[in-house]
Write a structure and sequence with these properties.
Number of domains: 2
Helix content: 25-40%
Strand order of the largest sheet: 1-2-3
CATH topology of the largest domain: CBS-domain
Distance between the termini: 30 Å
CATH class of the largest domain: Alpha Beta
Oligomer: single chain
Radius of gyration: 22 Å
Shape: elongated
CATH architecture of the largest domain: Roll
Length: 196
């Protein structure tokens, strides 16, 4: 199954700043680029933190106007290009961040992944989800007959019904369907063959 990766969804052209970039320069960059945060990189292009609009407002309301090094949230929570989107979403959630600078094998900034990028996964057409489940999950991976199962997809909600060879296939099938890009949830109406 070809799950989308961070590289598939990230924005590759990233606006970034150095530690010495001033408050006003950062505010101008955010406004002109129509973004809500900017990674702070060292002299080798490696992310060391992130300055968001919230960081600017918090520091401005405290009467403090400094540079990126003083304003940034750090350390930078980063992602790798080959991570699947589920892992990236989990890292965002666990760290309570809205974006992840994406780094290459040398730790240099190569992109940025935002929560809005991750939402794109759930815009996948129901028909494409259904076809992937039938072809890749049911037929290729589990070697089940697609005619024994009924796969319905509506707004990303997958409903599975029909007969599977044995009870052990059910949790595996559910887990595999849940990992298909665009699936919001899976409803289990399957019956193992020995129960029929």
């Amino acid at each position: 199954m070809g799950q989308l990766t961070v590289a598939d969804l990230m924005t590759p052209s990233v606006v970034s700043v150095q530690r010495g970039t001033t408050f006003k320069e950062i505010a101008r960059l955010l406004s002109e680029s129509r973004i809500t945060a900017v990674p702070v990189v060292d002299d080798r292009g490696r992310p060391v933190g992130v300055v968001s609009e919230a960081d600017l407002l918090r520091n401005r309301s405290a009467g403090v106007a400094r540079n990126a090094a003083a304003l940034m949230s750090h350390p930078a929570i980063t992602a790798k290009p080959l991570w699947n989107v589920v892992h990236a979403a989990r890292v965002m959630d666990e760290n309570k961040v809205k974006r992840l600078p994406v780094i290459d094998e040398d730790g240099r900034l190569v992109g940025i992944l935002s929560r809005s990028d991750l939402v794109q996964v759930f815009l996948r057409r129901d028909r494409a989800i259904q076809e992937e489940i039938l072809e890749e999950v049911v037929t290729q991976t589990l070697k089940l007959s697609p005619s024994a199962l009924n796969v319905e997809v509506s707004e990303g909600l997958v409903t599975l019904s029909g007969i599977v060879r044995n009870h052990g296939d059910v949790p595996v099938l559910l887990r595999l369907c849940q990992s298909v890009d665009g699936v919001v949830d899976v409803v289990n109406r399957l019956s193992p063959a020995e129960d029929v």
